Automatic annotation (TrEMBL):
InterPro entries reported for this sequence: Homeodomain-like_sf, HTH_AraC, Tscrpt_reg_AraC-type_HTH
Superkingdom: Bacteria
GO molecular function, one term: sequence-specific DNA binding
UniProt cross-references to PANTHER family, sorted A to Z: ARAC-FAMILY TRANSCRIPTIONAL REGULATOR, HTH-TYPE TRANSCRIPTIONAL REGULATOR EXSA
Pfam families the UniProt entry points to: HTH_18
Protein's UniProt name: AraC family transcriptional regulator
Protein species of origin: Peptoniphilus porci
Length: 211
């Protein structure tokens, strides 16, 4: 259970890779376990994350819990469970990002509205500070205090999540997605995407196809 706690504590958009790596470390001996035992391990993680997010963040994520309970039940091979494990952690993590669209602080509330609207325009911290008539240093400090993210962490996580949705569409090229999500170049898109997901955009798309 201690290991599940470590995963839950790291299941945040800015450090989701750490959470997924911890689970992989826990599961490294899964090849010697039966499919039912691996499924049980996954069910335990799902239930633990649901309970942790309910108690810690006051978020009732019954829909995520029930969705993955069904997915785990319907899997018939252990290789597919690894992908589902990463999706499971990602789903709980992204629920925190969704909540960031609203803040108790009016300044940060306005900042988030601007970012969510202009994320693909090359917006940077200095631009945002000017729009809000604040100093760059003050906004940087306040943003981190109120959201738990640095400006760059929030912006890049938002862009990465937008890119994930576009990667689901077969006809969208990586060059198009890079431009549409506001990355300065395709190499920058690939580097950032891998940093925040652990996979390149191509690898991520292939993992979706193989499911």
């Amino acid at each position: 259970m201690t290991n599940y706690l470590k995963i839950a504590e790291k299941a945040k958009p800015e450090c989701i890779n750490c959470a997924q790596e911890i689970f992989e470390a826990i599961s490294k001996n899964s090849t010697t376990k039966s499919l039912d035992k691996v499924k049980k391990q996954m069910d335990n993680l799902n239930t633990f994350l649901y309970t942790y997010f309910l108690i810690t963040y006051n978020k009732d994520l019954t829909n995520i819990h029930d969705d993955f309970t069904l997915k785990i039940k319907n899997v018939h091979d252990k290789s597919s469970l690894k992908n589902i494990a990463n999706q499971l952690i990602e789903a709980y993590s992204n629920s925190l990002l969704d909540e960031m669209e609203f803040s108790r602080n009016e300044i940060i509330d306005n900042a988030l509205k601007i970012i969510n609207k202009e994320y693909a325009t090359g917006l940077n911290l200095e631009d945002l500070a000017k729009k809000l008539h604040l100093s760059k240093n003050y906004l940087c400090s306040l943003f981190k205090e109120e959201t738990g993210f640095t400006f760059c962490q929030y912006l890049n996580t938002l862009k990465t999540n937008k890119a994930k949705k576009l990667l689901l569409e077969d006809k969208k090229t990586l060059e198009y997605i890079s431009y549409e999500c506001g990355f300065s170049s395709q190499p920058h898109f690939t580097m950032t995407f891998k940093k925040y997901t652990g996979k390149t955009p191509r690898e991520y798309k292939m993992s979706l196809v193989s499911q």
